[in-house]
Design goal:
The protein is of the alpha+beta class. It has 2 helices and 5 strands; from the N terminus they run H-E-E-E-E-E-H.
């Protein structure tokens, strides 16, 4: 299959995100899910909360990448907390 991929210029897809255990922060649920991309772990995750009886979710991916999954996981959680502190429920506005 790699022959055909090379022939037609297809690049291997990024590995599927490996989600960590959910973390609660100020009533929001953070799900960090860094994924491997080009040999490094990309910052990615989601923030969820029930708003008016409806489950809302905000997904995010950042350009930051790390050599280890643990470093990417730690940064993703910190980035999610920062998003919550700065935007709160406004992140769910359309």
């Amino acid at each position: 299959m790699s022959f055909w991929s090379a022939l037609f210029g297809r690049q291997p897809a990024a590995e599927t995100a490996k989600a960590a255990e959910p973390v609660e922060y100020k009533g929001f649920i953070i799900r960090a899910a860094p994924y491997k991309n080009n040999g490094a772990y990309q910052t990615a995750g989601s923030i969820a909360r029930d708003v008016g009886g409806v489950r809302k979710e905000h997904r995010f991916v950042r350009a930051d990448s790390y050599a280890s999954y643990e470093d990417a996981l730690s940064f993703t959680l910190n980035k999610a907390r920062q998003i919550i502190d700065l935007q709160g429920e406004r992140m769910f506005n359309d």
